[in-house]
Design a protein that fits this description.
Length: 136
């Protein structure tokens, strides 16, 4: 596995809340474009529901990971873009529903969450991109 270490506890730094402060990996990496809540036909999934939109964006990301020959354990970093930072718990809940079983108790990837004024198309509430350590 290319992910060598997930740094969660750092002396003098507040504990990570559901993410790693850093992840160390080896080998080739992939940078996955932002994924949003669209189905395979391009229709918005979960209009007005950030949890449903997060679940669909993660479903799409998971399909891209599969195409790369990777899985959730290979994700080094997730970057989240949300319209309303108050939705962070719904995003975390949807993330945890996917990542907790896949990681089997390992810490989540490093993570950044940013509130943005808008996403590229009206109706989207969340977008996620990823850095992935590709299995050899």
């Amino acid at each position: 596995m290319p992910v060598q270490r997930r740094v969660v506890d750092v002396a003098g730094v507040a504990p990570a809340n559901g993410y790693s402060h850093a992840v160390v990996s080896t080998g080739a990496t992939a940078y996955v474009a932002g994924q949003v809540a669209v189905d395979e036909e391009g229709a918005v999934v979960g209009p007005g529901d950030v949890g449903a939109q997060t679940a669909q964006a993660l479903r799409n990301l998971g399909l891209v990971l599969g195409e790369l020959g990777a899985g959730w354990a290979d994700v080094v970093k997730l970057c989240w873009y949300v319209l309303d930072a108050r939705d962070v718990q719904a995003v975390r809940d949807a993330r945890d529903a996917v990542l907790d079983p896949a990681l089997g108790g390992a810490a989540n990837p490093a993570s950044t969450l940013v509130q943005v004024a808008a996403l590229f198309r009206p109706g989207f509430l969340v977008e996620v991109d990823a850095v992935v350590a590709l299995p050899s």
